[in-house]
Structure formats: C-alpha cells, structure tokens
Amino acid sequence: MALKTWSDWLELHVNPNNTKLFFVSMSPIHERAQEWGGVEGQNCYGETEQIFEEGYRGSGTDPKMMRVVENTLDDLKKRGLNVRMLNITQLSDYRKEAHPSIYRKQWEPLTEKLKANPSSYADCDHWCLPGVPDVWNELLYAYILRQ
C-alpha cells in the first residue's frame, strides 16, 4: 500500500524528463548469529568480519518484499517513470560487522544484567560504522557519471 501511494505521488509530481529517480532497497538485520555459523542466541555484536558465503541471505531479508518493490518499479516504468533500484539489501547482508553498536538511544534505563551482556541490546538494524553507506553512495555516483 505504501509503495502504491509513493508510485502514484511520483506519477503526479515528478517530471521524468528532468529527474533521475532511485529507490534504495531495505537494509537487512543481523540478529541471528547461527545463520552465519556463529553462536546460537547471539547477534552481530562484536563481529569483525563480513560474511564471505556467496549468495548469503539472512532470514530477515524477505525475497517476497523485494519482488513487491520490483513489481512496483516495473509498473512505474509502464507508466513512463524509470526508477532505478539501488539494491543494497544483498550487498549489506554480507556486512554483519558493519553495524554492531550499543550506543543507540535506550528508551528504558538498562539494568545491570543487560549492561553485563551488550549483545542483548546491540543495534543490529542501523549502520553505525563507516563503509557500507559509503559503498552505496559510490555505486550511485558511478552510475550517475555513466549516464
């Protein structure tokens, strides 16, 4: 429903003759270390290497969601709007070490028990370390220069 609203808005408000449109796909999560051979019950906290298994896809990455996005972009193309997808999902799925932070805002004060186990409140959804977003920006910049 959100993508339908977004695509309708684009069709009404964007002039495709003077605007390049990009859609950045979703960022994956790394909450289940056992998916990449880590300890069950752990997450990305403390990880220092990326995942090297070609084609790795974590359980938090839903291929059906990606197909919904692709179908929406195909529909937009039929309506005269060419939106390029910058698929960061697969690229980012490999980077379990790039966002393990314990410095996010805590809505409730941490108990002593939680403080003793940082992986229990690590932020495995947001990118905290440089590198991954820089790669996305470099890819986008390179694409634009090619045009």
TrEMBL record:
An example molecular function term from Gene Ontology annotations: O-acetyltransferase activity
InterPro entries to which the protein is assigned, alphabetical: TBL, TBL_C
Limits of the Trichome birefringence-like C-terminal domain: 1-142
A GO CC term assigned to this protein in UniProt: Golgi apparatus
PANTHER family named in the record: PROTEIN TRICHOME BIREFRINGENCE-LIKE 34 (PTHR32285:SF11), PROTEIN TRICHOME BIREFRINGENCE-LIKE 9-RELATED (PTHR32285)
Family that this chain belongs to: Belongs to the PC-esterase family. TBL subfamily.
Protein name from the UniProt record: Trichome birefringence-like C-terminal domain-containing protein
Organism: Cannabis sativa (Hemp)
Lineage of producing organism: Eukaryota, Viridiplantae, Streptophyta, Embryophyta, Tracheophyta
